């Protein structure tokens, strides 16, 4: 069964393309990754949790991912295998943020109270320009480090930050709606009819399973994608490739 995911804002905002032209981005292999002041990487050896817990190990794995596979979005040992099966372009925030510019890992913290195997990683991507080396932020991303097969791997903010959002199934579309947002059943049914009519017009098979995220503001769309900051708003829809 084909599954297609669309992320959009309820009025005029949907998701956007890269904000920096690929021609100005450097090779991902040359990306400089450094820890911020709040990230202690002093302990050594995998599994040495005596001072900072698993933070040093998570940092090293995240650094290696950013230097190798992040921009390519090719199959990798660093990302959750479950999410790679679901989304061929699995690193959602990375589709917007990774432009080959230096990365500063600002924090690696427990995802929530009581968690032991889930951490939030916030990373600032910024260009450095001019003789004064002025930093110009591109994006601040949020990804999760989780345990999978006894290894630290990375996962998206989207399913975690929308876990408690209401689901409304209308035909073949599942609307995933921000709490407090008034859901319009009439418009939802119209969207289903429109999608079916487009498929009929072009003689293609109708989409059988589609997730549609609805939020009130551009900032909330950014947040659930794992973009705590982005230099420009997201302005046109992006369709996630079908999952397996």
Helix tally?
Answer: 6
| Secondary-structure content class | alpha/beta
Could you give the order of the helices and strands?
EEHHHEEEEHEEHEHEE
The helix content is: 10-25%
Q: What is the approximate shape?
A: globular
Distance between the termini: 8 Å
Major β-sheet profile: 6 strands, mixed
Radius of gyration: 19 Å
Low-pLDDT regions = 1-28, 236-244
Mean pLDDT over all positions: 81
- What is the beta-strand fraction? 25-35%
By DSSP, the count of extended strands is 11
What this model shows, in words?
By secondary structure, the protein is of the alpha/beta class. The chain contains 6 helices and 11 strands. Strands 2, 3, 4, 5, 6 and 10 form a 6-stranded mixed beta sheet that branches. A 5-stranded mixed beta sheet has the order 7-8-9-1-11, covered by helices on one side. Strand 8 (173-177), helix 5 and strand 9 (210-214) form a beta-alpha-beta unit. The radius of gyration is 19 Å and the shape is globular. Residues 1-28 and 236-244 have low confidence and may be disordered.
């Amino acid at each position: 069964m084909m599954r297609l995911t669309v992320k959009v804002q309820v009025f005029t905002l949907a998701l956007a393309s890269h904000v920096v032209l690929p021609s100005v981005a450097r090779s991902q292999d040359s990306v400089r990754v450094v820890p911020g002041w709040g990230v202690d990487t002093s302990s050594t050896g995998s599994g040495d949790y005596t001072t900072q817990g698993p933070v040093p190990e998570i940092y090293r794995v995240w650094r290696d991912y950013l230097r190798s596979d992040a921009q390519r979005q090719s199959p990798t040992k660093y990302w959750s295998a479950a999410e790679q099966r679901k989304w061929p372009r699995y690193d959602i925030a990375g589709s917007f943020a990774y432009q080959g510019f230096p990365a500063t890992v600002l924090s690696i913290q427990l995802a929530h109270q009581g968690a032991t195997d889930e951490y939030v990683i916030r990373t600032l991507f910024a260009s450095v320009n001019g003789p004064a080396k002025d930093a110009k932020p591109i994006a601040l991303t949020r990804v999760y480090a989780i345990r999978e097969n006894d290894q630290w791997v990375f996962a998206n903010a989207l399913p975690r930050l929308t876990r408690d959002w209401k689901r409304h199934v209308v035909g073949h579309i599942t609307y995933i709606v921000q709490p407090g947002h008034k859901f319009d059943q009439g418009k939802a049914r119209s969207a289903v009819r429109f999608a079916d009519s487009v498929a009929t017009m072009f003689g293609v098979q109708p989409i059988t399973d589609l997730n549609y995220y609805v939020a009130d503001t551009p900032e909330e769309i950014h947040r659930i994608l794992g973009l705590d900051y982005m230099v420009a708003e997201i302005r046109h829809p992006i369709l996630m490739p079908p999952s397996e």
